[in-house]
Amino acid sequence: MTKQGAVSLRELLEYLKGEKRHKIVAAIEEARAHGDLSENAEYHAAKEEQGMNEARVSDLEDKLARAHIIDPSTITAEKVVFGATIELIDMNEGTEITYQIVGVDEANIEAGKVSITSPIARSLIGKEEGDVAVVQAPGGEREYEIQSIEYV
């Protein structure tokens, strides 16, 4: 994962272990105050939310512990590799698009971050400026011309 992706996951983990955990505990205590726990829907919902939160915390801790963190600004490559920010021209529509190739957990297409496992990233890996990448997308074949490659 990229350095920024690791920072984002750590911030999320801090939120889940701190503020979110405290809100769930407060909800459980409030539900307990209503009496009979066997028929208390609020209590059961809060306990279920607590379980999901703790599972997410464990998952994030595991991912961060096993992650290989890469700072794209330290990469000097002429070809597209993990961490690259690529300016493309969609040859089908004539529009410009910018994507950064990131880890699976930090992908966010709205923010221009595509997963290393996505069809577009797989078709771009190893290409250079001026090359055309052909992507097998769900809507059919798409062609992208690489305008520039940056590592920031």
From TrEMBL:
Q: What superkingdom heads the lineage?
A: Bacteria
Query: What molecular function does GO assign, one term?
Result: translation elongation factor activity
Q: Which residues form the Transcription elongation factor GreA/GreB C-terminal domain?
A: 77-151
The record's listing under SUPFAM superfamilies reads: FKBP-like (SSF54534), GreA transcript cleavage protein, N-terminal domain (SSF46557)
Which residue numbers delimit the Transcription elongation factor GreA/GreB N-terminal domain?
A: 1-69
- The answer, when asked if ATP-binding is one of the entry's keywords, is no
Q: Which family does it belong to?
A: Belongs to the GreA/GreB family.
Tell me which NCBIfam families the record gives: greA (TIGR01462), PRK00226.1-2 (NF001261), PRK00226.1-4 (NF001263), PRK00226.1-5 (NF001264)
Query: What role does it play?
Result: Necessary for efficient RNA polymerase transcription elongation past template-encoded arresting sites. The arresting sites in DNA have the property of trapping a certain fraction of elongating RNA polymerases that pass through, resulting in locked ternary complexes. Cleavage of the nascent transcript by cleavage factors such as GreA or GreB allows the resumption of elongation from the new 3'terminus. GreA releases sequences of 2 to 3 nucleotides.
Recorded protein name is Transcription elongation factor GreA
Per the UniProt entry, what species is this protein from, by scientific name? Answer: Mariprofundus micogutta
